[in-house]
Amino acid sequence: MASKKAMEVVKGIDLKRYMGRWYEIASFPSMFQPKNGVNTRATYALKEDGTVHVLNETWSDGKRVFIEGTAYKADPNSDEAKLKVKFYVPPFLPIIPIVGDYWVLYLDEDYQYALVGQPSRKYLWILCRNTHMDDEIYNRLVEKAREEGYDVTKLHKTPQSDPPPEEDGPQDTKGIWWIKSIFGK
């Protein structure tokens, strides 16, 4: 793993172009996601006040589980793509605000794939507008993550179906996945 140098973050991101659906191609496992999650994706929508509505979805045991939140620029005066994301947990009784960093470390000029992380290097996501990514692009993003000091051996590829599932399928409305994730299941 590379040394903990300052991270290089995308500058001048066009948030309007960044909005829409992104599929998780790979990530570091997180206690905030089901361990057996598949078809994981995020959908972003710019709101009138300049914040971003965030919808994170995954499918666990055949059911759609999701959490909604809000993202905003960490420093409104900076041109760096450093955002904060706020979710309320647990999803079945959303009372505790959880705020995390969402730093866009790489973004192609057509806004088709991205590398997203945060300063502690505990979380990392490789995202794509499509459910699958070319191996060459994937390997370049993994190498970029390594250069930014991430232990890329922790990356876990996310199974994606093609076509992706619809949102109107069965849902986990009780947040059982969240309780299981606390206990490492």
From TrEMBL:
Residues 13-160 form the Lipocalin/cytosolic fatty-acid binding domain. InterPro entries: Calycin, Lipocalin_ApoD, Lipocalin_bac, Lipocalin_Blc-like_dom, Lipocalin_CS, Lipocln_cytosolic_FA-bd_dom. Residues 152-175 are annotated as: Disordered. Belongs to the calycin superfamily. Lipocalin family. One of its GO terms (biological process) is lipid metabolic process. Pfam families: Lipocalin_2 (PF08212). It comes from the Eukaryota. GO terms for cellular component: cytoplasm. This is Lipocalin/cytosolic fatty-acid binding domain-containing protein. Transmembrane segments: none annotated.
